[in-house]
Here is the input.
Amino acid sequence: MSASALLSVQGVRVDFPGRRGAPVARAVDGVDLDIRRGEIVALVGESGCGKTTLARALLGLVEPTAGRVVFDGRPLRYSGRSLKAYRRRVQLVLQDPSGSLNPRHTVYDAVAEGLRVHGHGGDERAAVAEALSRAGLRPPERFFLRHPHELSGGQRQRVVIAGALVLEPELLVADEPVASLDASVRGEILALLLRLRAELGLSALVVTHDLGLAWNIADRVAVMYLGRIVETGAVERVLTAPRHPYTQALLSVLPEAPGEPVILAGEPPDPSRVPSGCRFHARCHILAGGEADRAGVSQACRGRDPEILDGSGAAQVACHWAHAVTG
Here is the structure.
């Protein structure tokens, strides 16, 4: 764990037992990831790659099968008291505000809920008003008695963010925070997250399948495939000069991407049947097109698992071909 890291995921593995004797599904398969104070990290990948399970592990909602989560220098403990204290400092922002807000609760009660759970001893009304104001709902008193159905989608997402901010956390974990919003509102919510980082020094992990979102909000990106991070580094470096074939394929389908999109063969493999060698090799256009063979690494791609990337944030890639052609 680097000295400046607020949160460090160290060798985390999360297994889920199969039903009726089926093989164990390894949703997260050895991940190191640091998040520094004041840093926004985007965790990107296709649905089913393990990114939400990893987010749940670092929130303490899933206990890792192996490895550990370290926050502010201390390993996360899974007792009720320890988790309650931890979750005051690390807050979740869900992708669907309609699903995460109780339709019977007023905005005031929705935001105050965290204060009541954690036994806030101060002025509740002032804390709720400040959180709503920070989330861009002003004047806050105008929203106190409204219900979720009376708000727009963007306003509901701001209420969810206010509910996280009211506890004055140090880290936000945002799972697809703008996926359910109209394009016109997405930019406003992303701008809000950036402003909160600037004003409050918040760190954030943004879980998304959208590389365009990562480009607009993140300092650093970690690309995940089949339970493991396969490329990481500063967002500008990874998204302008991707080295892993999987990252290249994800970027190629963006509307502004040059050239033809890379169409990946098949679906992501079953996490209970991780392929030998590089876990991406069965879908890899570099291997299928003969480029890995010309670089002399095709056998390694099929038979040798690349090393796990460390969590330092330096530019790294888990790809035999990328190392062969770029050194």
Remarks:
- The mean pLDDT is 93.
- The domain at 5-224 is CATH 3.40.50.300 (Rossmann fold).
